[in-house]
Protein 1
Amino acid sequence: MDESIRKFERYLGRRYPNRSTMKHYVSDSQIFQRFANKPPRQVTKLDIANFVEDQLGRGLAATTVNRRLACLHHFFEFLADEADDDTWANPIIWRQHRVKEGKPLPRDLSDAEVERLFAGIDHPRDRLMFGLMYWAGLRVGEVAALRVSDFIPAGNPEKGARLRVRGKGQKERVVPLTPALTQQWEEWLAQRLRVENDALFVTRRKKGISERGIQNRLAHYARQTGVAVTCHRLRHTFGRRMVEAKMPLPTLSKLLGHEQVTTTQVYIAGAGVDVRADYEAAMGRLEAERPGPPLFLALPPEPVGVPPSPKQSSVDEGGATVIPPEVSAASLDVSRFWADLPAWLTESLADYIAYQQRRWKPSQVAHHARNRSQTLRQVWCWLVEERDVSGFAALGRRDVEAYVDARLRADVAASTLNRQLRDLWAFLRFVEERGQPVSPGVFRVARLKEGKPLPRFLTDEEYRRLETVIRNKTAAGTRDDRLDRAWFYLLAHGGLRLGELCDLRLGDVDSMGQRLVIREGKGKRDRVIPLSETAVTMMDDYLVVRGTAWTDHLLIFRQQAIKPNLVQSRLSRYGKAVGMAVSSHRLRHTLATRLVNVGMDIVSIQRLLGHEKLATTMIYARVHDTTVERDFRQAMTRLEANQERRPAVDQTEPTSLVEEFFSHIHEPVFVATQALNCV
């Protein structure tokens, strides 16, 4: 296995230059080598299971064991690719070997411990090093990598300077410095040895201090003061203090340089969330910020010239009972998608679609079945015709890669191709579990790297223009006008998905309680959301003219539940009137961005939108720079008030924390995000 690890090390050096990834992966591979002591091809699933038990028996944390499993998975994938052997199965089976991880509380220090620690730090270099972690949230590696030239002086002497920080993966960001840290920086430079090395923190040997050197210095002060502290605990403490000062999570995420806001979420472990209170406060601020009188007033309860929807007759002209279209028992037939495909394939495709139908929301079965069938037909037609695939066992990795290359030449988007790959893999897993031989290599086709598009939200000015157009075009108050107002505000103020909107039932509405029940949202998760007064008013105005229908759906058109394409076509028409491309999903993005920028808690927004992961919510919500300034000032004001109530221990600490913020926030100072080293 020695030679295999050396090859793996060279590969990692090419892929991850100037990063610690190679060191950790090689170390983990060597640990497994000492445990298994056999050639890589002879490693089995049982060996991996025994390795996991051995590591747990040594007292290692679940996160550490899972990290080593991830390394080994990468190692065996590399070896199979290097050998060009699609039959070499990876012995790591995640659903079998992965260890369930707990949710530890944040590892922060109390204020008293911080005061005791800094009271014992007398060296100006060390005081600045650890102050950057505690007051700016820098990682130990970022502190070690600082250069004298990274300092960006402040335009206003009363404000703090800025600092260019290099994080993991050579990603950079610019962070603010408090005036106190700026002063400490200048004091250290006045005493720093004059050397050619540009490293900010140098040792007596005139070399830049290493991460280990910084950690050793902190360990020295920890022994002197009796404070159990690490560099990362100082960073956690910075995050905890910002949370206690009520800084919104997205702002804190930017300050810490996290790529995923879920990483920042560990700093609010156990925090209570009141979605209704947060929503009402945010919507109140939005209404207060909107100029002019209220856009919509309640329409008369009995509109002139707008009769209710007529009741549909329950019998036809011959006296036979009419079956409502919504509950007609027509079976879903997708056999047309399998035309011209070989028999060995069509039976499995039909079984797979039937299997999936039981897992889809009833109202979306037809939509998902058509999309999934169309995708699988497109992929398999190409594989059969262009690669002459004659069975599941005959399908290889090169065949799938050839399909990807062909679609890329046809200018198919990376996101579309990744979705097609996921659909293909899901189908192949299905047939593999039912006894069909499938080459492990087909699952090793690399996903394409997708771009990170900006959130698709409307600006405040664009949203107001759209709202005004809808107000003007629905002023007559006809049945269709009221219908359009109802669905618009359910989308714009409730953040519903289009499918959730069309599936709403009369029993899901609680006008008196101003709330709405969303049943079987994405992932078949139910949720209850609050409604704004405007949304309730528009919905009640529509219910006056809704009338009766075959279905108990809330929104109906021509006696049937409203269809997604009707909502989308009308919304597009309103958008074209103001020169904008508007969709229901863009309104969902817009609501998230508006709410987060008036201070609504991001976890409350997550629950309002029905997201399983907080990172998904952050794709929707764009935090404006002015919001960062406001949140930071408010948080520091609260911290200042708290410190004024406590006796000062260290007179070198800043006396006016709110002045420690920076005046240049309107510039794009947070130019890049970084991944957090959780270890």
Protein 2
Amino acid sequence: MTQNEDLRENMLRQVLQHLSQQSESQYLKILTGLAEVATTNGHKLLSLSSNYDAQMKSLLRIVRIFCHVFRIGPSSPSNGIDMGYNGNKTPRSQVFKPLELLWHSLDEWLVLIATELMKNKEDSTDITSILLKQKGQDQEAPSLSAFEPPGPGSYESLPPGPGDSKPEVLAGEQEASADCQDVISVTANRLSAVIQAFYMCCSCQMPPGMTSPRFIEFVCKHDEVLKCFVNRNPKIIFDHFHFLLECPELMSRFMHIIKAQPFKDRCEWFYEHLHSGQPDSDMVHRPVNENDILLVHRDSIFRSSCEIVSKANCAKLKQGIAVRFHGEEGMGQGVVREWFDILSNEIVNPDYALFTQSADGTTFQPNSNSYVNPDHLNYFRFAGQILGLALNHRQLVNIYFTRSFYKHILGIPVNYQDVASIDPEYAKNLQWILDNDISDLGLELTFSVETDVFGAMEEVPLKPGGGSILVTQNNKAEYVQLVTELRMTRAIQPQINAFLQGFHMFIPPSLIQLFDEYELELLLSGMPEIDVNDWIKNTEYTSGYEREDPVIQWFWEVVEDITQEERVLLLQFVTGSSRVPHGGFANIMGGSGLQNFTIAAVPYTPNLLPTSSTCINMLKLPEYPSKEILKDRLLVALHCGSYGYTMA
């Protein structure tokens, strides 16, 4: 019954749930049967002759049903003590025993691949070359049986059938084509699906929010092979390695690979997991219950919205949201969009003293003096809720924040370049300290600075005993970083904490880490339109370039050819902002006031990438010999994070 594709999975769950609750023995019998079916299907999936798509879907479907029935059974565990992984042999833990055969096969396949990878460093992902090498040496056609894991394994205990995945069985099926296939490419998806099933079974035996120690040990053991799979086919992350989102320890091992995936793919993965388990695919809809409608007053929209959202059920707000203005009949997505648009403007309303405008005049930063508003922390929490709700429901907000604030949302450390958004001159001073030898200058700086504390200037140590520690050539980098953290983080830590408390009610920290600060801005505020003609009109040239030079002509042709997203990346790369201020490129601000977009010539050397000085909106463009090379190098810089930012 569990393999009948015509039966809906939810219906199967309900039927099996009902049957399993008749008695303890019936419950255990159903679970054992499901485990045996899953094991058989898993071995079929590992057989290279089977239909991957059909077997993968069948295995994961059965495992989902198995885990559901296990969780809802009599006296479901709350602490994992009776799950069997601590040595206790309870009846409930024994239902997993048939699956151990599948996990053993999985482990042997991964060890097999790891062994061959270690032996062949020069071609670390191509087992085909190994097979061909063996063929030349032995004058025999290779087979996968050459890679059979040592020991008898547990295959003999499996019931006979076409799905047996023992390597020597596969050899007969695959011998004719083994010498022309990359075994990793063939097996990676199959093994990854079984890994997903293993994770699901481990997780259902643990309390909510806790990752199975057994699974963590498994991933650590096979770390190199799993990374090899992902490098070969990054989509495996999105298809099967869902465990990365639920375990920070494991996610950190793969984060560099995850962030290298296309922005579009990460967005799809983000929303797939954000909305997993939610019954309604139409995110912004009218709730059935009239009590769930957010009834707000237009003339006091900020305060009334804050009050009603703070009392609303978060789970229901995640599933859907409907807004009605008091005294008005209108409802629907248009009203919801208007509500978000008005609130995003109100969040930065100076009357609430929550945010201050940054030096560039287009972005906002939390106000370190927001305490003048007695309710400021409640309002920051509400601001976090609004941005979290907007992101949850794919609604754009009409507000842009400083790069450092996006970093705070993502948990990314700030650096001294971020200071330029609130104090360009101070940022220049920090840059000067880093760039120059301060040994004999007599600056007499210590690890303490004078700063505003609740309206009064006080000496604040950057670290314990900082007032008596001199800044030297050897420790100046630490000084610059600590000063940056004081100005950009410690000064507004309560505000940041309150904001994140509200934001994380709707957006889990592990999910938002999929993005960098530039991508988060695009997710929250959308893609701004860029007028290329206005850009050209308000650009200056220096260090030898002139408007008529071939390199400049090629540059603007490339700008016109690339996508709108890539133009935004270019604008961010050079100015630090994805937005053009009101009035166009003529009003772009630099560190000392109005500063046009500028392109400076740099001598060409092979493979040299463009860099930028964000403080003065300058693109340092090498004198490339052709348009093709210019475009290639520019796109590499934009997409691969060659953020050669410098302070003028």
Protein 3
Amino acid sequence: MIAKPNCSSTDSSVSRCVQDLLCNTSVVLNLSEVEMEEFCLNQDEYLEKYLGPRRSPMFLPVCITYLLIFLVGAVGNILTCIVIARNKVMRTPTNFYLFSLAVSDLLVLLLGMPLELYEMWSNYPFLLGKGGCYFKTFLFETVCFASILNVTALSVERYIAVVHPLRAKYVVTRTHAKRVILSVWSMSVLCAIPNTSLHGIFTLPLPKGKGVGAMPTSATCMLVKPRWMYNLIIQITTLLFFFIPMLTISVLYLLIGMQLKREKMLQVLEAKAGLGQDSSSNVRSQQQKTRRQQVTKMLCK
């Protein structure tokens, strides 16, 4: 029960508005002390109390940094796509993966980065609505997953080409690369749906005593479902799209390095044993060179 103050005096520890409310018996019976403080706030003060400042204090330095990233990234990735698309010689399985990576980067640069800057410039209200909120979340999730899977697929291709060159002739092909890239993007789209469905538009309710409903000016794109669901999805996607790919890539490049080191050691041993002049050694050396040339040729088809 809130004690009623002396209405004829001015208490410096209590705002004039709250003191006036405390002197109004009908209001005191319906509002708590916190609700009275909220009632006395104007709209901007109320929004800042719960949502923070409307504009991020880091907007200017982040904007300059993003602009530099945009210029370098956009030019580089657009040129990559143009070169691969317009030159048949460049349409190799490896370059297909690079093309896919460039597309994912361009999606972030051209669509995702402006949305990020807009939110930093004006945290609320989010003017793009529920569809825009879904699109923003879906875009970042999809391109993130696609980039990771593309790099993983490229690593697998390189492993096959170096360690299993005979098998590479049938596996490392343009047709196979196109199928893998299509599968990568399809999987990325599907895996982006769960996290996207947890986000939406959140609006603050009007302060008690100022009406019933929500404040349209407080609309923000954020997590609207239970936090435990979000944490569960994050844990699963982190395992599937970070730890497993990182482990896979690390193991594959370790095996590639071991294979190349093994071949190099064989050459050194043959040279030390004085077999460099031997015809059979020359044949084996020529076969190794031919195999490397075939691998390089297959990667460039």
Protein 4
Amino acid sequence: MLRGKRRKAQVSLELGTAFVLIFLLLFASFNLARWIVGRLVLRQETYEASRQGASDPFQHLGAEDDESTAPPLRFFGQ
């Protein structure tokens, strides 16, 4: 009888650990996807601004590709 209770406890512990790990992986993948989309948007804006600036060389649009304006990759935090 004791062996069955230990088995149930082990299954519960493994299932709980698996759920926590799956949740963390899902959360991290969503944050990574948001970061990638943000970087793509920044690159596209820079590309379009530079093309527009190339057509009118006397107009300054501020189309420098500055990595400091890119959103930082943060999995846990603000």
